Amino acid sequence: MWGIFIPYVHSYLDDLLCLPIVLGLTTQFLQWIHPARRFYYLSHNHIIISIVFFSLVFEILYPFMFPLNYTADIIDILFYALGGYLYYSFVSLKTKNRWLTFVNHKREEIQ
């Protein structure tokens, strides 16, 4: 649009931000409907499954089915994994720790 083209940003920023955005929206929705509410978090297994799913769909399946529109790139998978790791580090672990603190506090009240 403005003639600014930064190759690495153009190629990989969307892959880096994909999982944090999708997992963040998923977590928010699940927190609305799950009984644990604000303490619900996605475990590392959920995040690994998401990385594998997005990698399979967007780097293997779509390039095979639509070769004119999609290109397979192994570096995209690395950025999906990095985005998943960042989400886990900055969002899921904080929620998990908040949950564990809450549970431990409740246990202390009972005893």
Protein structure class: mainly alpha
Q: Estimate what percentage of residues fall within beta strands.
A: under 5%
Largest sheet: none
- Please give the alpha-carbon distance between the first and last residues: 64 Å
> What is the string of SSEs from the N terminus onward?
HHH
Low-confidence stretches: none
**Quaternary state of the chains:** single chain
Can you tell me the number of structural domains? 1
Q: Helix proportion of residues, in percent?
A: over 70%
State the shape: elongated
> Based on DSSP secondary structure assignment, what is the total number of beta strands?
0
Number of helices: 3
Average residue pLDDT: 92
Rg calculated over all Cα atoms? 18 Å
Protein name: Magnesium citrate secondary transporter
Organism: Marivirga lumbricoides
Keywords: Membrane, Transmembrane, Transmembrane helix
Transmembrane segments: 12-33, 45-64, 70-88
Please tell me about this protein's structure.
This protein is an all-alpha fold. The protein has one domain (7-106). Helix content is 77%, strand content 0%. The chain has helices at 7-33, 44-65, 74-110. The protein is elongated, with a radius of gyration of 18 Å. The N and C termini lie far apart (64 Å). The relative contact order is 0.16. This is Magnesium citrate secondary transporter. Keywords: Membrane, Transmembrane, Transmembrane helix. The chain crosses the membrane at residues 12-33, 45-64, 70-88.
Short synopsis of the structure:
This protein has 111 residues and is mainly alpha-helical. It contains three helices and no strands.
